[in-house]
Structures are given as C-alpha cells and as structure tokens.
Amino acid sequence: MSAVMPTRILGVLLTLLVAFGPVSTDLYLASLPDLGRDLKTDSAMVQLTLSIFVVGFAVMQLVYGPLSDRFGRRSVILGGTTVYVAASVFCVFAGSIEALIVGRFFQAVGGCCGPVVARAVVRDIYPREQAARVLSYMASAMALAPLVAPTIGGWFHTWFGWRSNFVLLALFGVALLVLVWRMLGETNNHPDAEALSLGRMVENYRHLLGHRLFLGYTLTMTAAFGGLFSFISGSSFVLIDVLGMPPRYFGLAFSFASLGYVIGGFAGARLSHRFGVERMVRFGVVGCTLAGIVLAGLVWSDLVKPGLDGVAMIMVPIMLFFVSCALVLPNSTAAAIAPFPRMAGAASAVMGFIQMSGGGVAGWLVGRLYDGTARPMVTVIAVSGLLSLVIFFTVVRRAAKP
Q1: pLDDT tens digits for 102-114?
Q2: Where does residue 264 rank: exposed (0-12), middle (13-18), buried (19+ CB within 10 A)?
Q3: 3 state SS for 231-298
Q4: With contact defined as beta carbons under 8 Å apart, do 256 and 148 qualify?
Q5: pLDDT, tens only, 386-401
Q6: pTM of the predicted model, to two decimals?
Q7: Residue 345, CA distances (Å) to 68, 120, 285, 329 in order
Q8: What span, in angstroms and rounded, lies between the C-alpha atoms of 345 and 64?
Q9: pLDDT tier at 119 (50, 70, 90 boundaries)?
Q10: What does the H/E/C string look like for the chain?
Q11: Structural domains in the chain?
Q12: Among 74, 232, 254, 239, which residue's Cα sits nearest to residue 152?
C-alpha cells in the first residue's frame, strides 16, 4: 500500500491515533465517583485505573518505538489497536476494581501504539519546523477529544451506567482499526533491521538520554504534562464531590479546559514558524507557572467555595494552564525528535515513556494526597508548572547555546 495520501486525510487519521490517550482517560472521568461506590472501593483505587493506564502507556512505548523502526508503522498500529479493542471489551465485564485495573493496563498496552507511531510518521514526512506546525494542529484538533469525550461519557453514565463508557471505547478502537487498515500506508522507508537488537536498543536509549537538548525538552514537556494530568486525574472528585457539580454537567466544565488546549494548539501552529520552537516553549512554561500559582493561591486562600462561582474560580486558571501546555507539548515534541531521523520511533518512545511516567506519578500523588478538598490537585499543578519553567531555563536554554 502506498504511503502517499491527501495531507488533510493523513492529518485526521494521525490525530485520531494520538487521541487514543485522551479519549481513553477522559471519556469515563464523570463516572469515577460512582464507579468507586459500585465496586465498593476508595478514591485512591479508582484513580489507580487512570494511573495504571499511564504506566502501561509509558512502558509499552519503549517497545512500540523500536518495533515500528524495524517492521514499519502500519503493521504495529494494526496489532496494537487489536489489543486495545480486546482489553476494552474485558473492561466492560470487569466485576471488581482489580479486574478493571488489569483491563485498563492492557488497554494502554494496545492504545499507546497510536501516539508513538503517529509522532514517528510525522517525523518520517516533515522537517523540524514544519513538524512542529503539524503537531500543533494535531494537538489542537486532538483537544476536541477531551472537549467532547467527558460530556458524552457523562450523559452515557447517566443513561446506562459507567460500563457503557467502555463499550464506546471498544467501538472507537474498532473504527480506528478499520480506518488504519484501509487508509494508512507505510511511511518508514528505511526500516532498521537491527532496531530490535538489545545492544542497539540500549545504545540508542543511551544516546538519547545523553543528548542534553533531547532530555531538556522531554523533561520540560513532562513537567507540564504532569500538571495537565493532575487535573485529569483529580477534576471529577474536585468538581463533583467538593464543589457539588452534577456528573452530567462535568463534561461542560472539562470542555472549558480542553477549549484552552484547542486555542493554544492553533496559536502554536500559526506562530511557531514566526517565533521558532524554543521561544514558543518559553512562552508556554511561563504561562503554566503563572496559571498554576494563581490557581493554588485561590484555593489555599479559601476563596473557592461550592457552587458555580467556585467552579469558575478553578476553571479559568485551568484553562490558561491548558493554553500554555498546548504551546509546550507539540513544540517540545518536534524539537526533541528532530535530531534523530534514523531512529524517530525510538526517540518518540523514550520521550513518551518519560512523559507518561511523569503524568502517572502526578496522578498518583493527587489520588494519594486527596483529602476531600481541591488543595492536593492544585498544589501538584502549581509545582508542575514551576518545574517546567526551571527545567527549560536550566537545561534547554543552556543546551541550545552554541
């Protein structure tokens, strides 16, 4: 099958593949409190269904990257998507929180093929600055998933219960499987026969982790993503249980944050060629830091109370944080993998592993520290934003100097 297809069609397909992650985490967010009550478990165990998904997503990226470098992008996506569909069906029938956690792990094992290979496809086709622009458009379009998914999930939860969300995820996987089979050609024109050699893998990973610019951009985006995932992990408990929002309206609030990512993604796509990747990331980390500090200040000063006003005081700085993250993540991704045309899969895998591991740790912290208030969530978000700023100015800026 030819790898050539209309650019817009390719962009839509790659965006859907990258959306595996946000769709899988965001669709059932409104169900988390009731899910815990139905399976007779606490909030920490329920949030583990999110964190374990992130762990599986992180670990398997180290496998999918070299696999796609060796065997090509298309076959790897087909195999991973098949695993995702099977795991989603398993989650539908999970009878305990432990079974659901296992199902979520294998959902991640299959689904993480999407973003890893999609980023490698972008690197296969575009040079650095154009790749940053394409990734920014993909990021803003991808944000439509969390813009829509929590609302759909909240209503399906209200009508049919939390298991219906996993039925929708299984159908999403089937649809992607069909689209990839019919539409995606092979873009890896130089498969590496030694990509799966243990010695080569170790050498590739050692080289990547020793590359200061790669590591700096990867850690910068990891810190910002940690703040973003902290909101994903803790938002349903804060907005529904702490601030009293009905589950069916949770998606509207979450969509407000996702709209920020759409705005930031489109702004990044339009401006990255004018200001350059490094400057766009700098704008983003400053914005993450300021939004996080304002958010934490409002909550710790006890100005946030149950009701619509309290929700607004949480969501406005969260939206600004998401706008800023949309500047950091796509541009950092393009800058991190640009120097590695021959091992774009491995670079994408290591970057994704570190990013998702950081997000998993942040989500775990929010769950473990949850005390019935918004303070743990907003504190982790503020620290994540500040950490992204520090890493950028102490690692990236120094490594970028000639």
Answers
A1: 999 999 999 888 8
A2: buried
A3: HHHHHHHHHHHHCCCCHHHHHHHHHHHHHHHHHHHHHHHHHHHHHCHHHHHHHHHHHHHHHHHHHHHH
A4: no
A5: 999 999 999 987 776 6
A6: 0.72
A7: 6, 5, 26, 17
A8: 8
A9: confident
A10: CCCCCCHHHHHHHHHHHHCHHHHHHHCCHHHHHHHHHHCCCCHHHHHHHHHHHHHHHHHHHHHHHHHHHHHCHHHHHHHHHHHHHHHHHHHHCCCCHHHHHHHHHHHHHHHCHHHHHHHHHHHHHCCHHHHHHHHHHHHHHHCHHHHHHHHHHHHHHHHHCCHHHHHHHHHHHHHHHHHHHHHCCCCCCCCCCCCCCHHHHHHHHHHHHCCHHHHHHHHHHHHHHHHHHHHHHHHHHHHHHHCCCCHHHHHHHHHHHHHHHHHHHHHHHHHHHHHCHHHHHHHHHHHHHHHHHHHHHHHHCCCCCCCHHHHHHHHHHHHHHHHHHHHHHHHHHHHHHCCCHHHHHHHHHHHHHHHHHHHHHHHHHHHHHCCCCCHHHHHHHHHHHHHHHHHHHHHHHHHHCC
A11: 7-184+192-400 (1.20.1250.20)
A12: 254
Place of tokens 């909550």: 299
Which tokens hold the place of 13?
Answer: 């397909």
pLDDT above 60 for 1: no
Question: Which of 111, 97, 100 is CA-nearest to residue 39?
Answer: 97
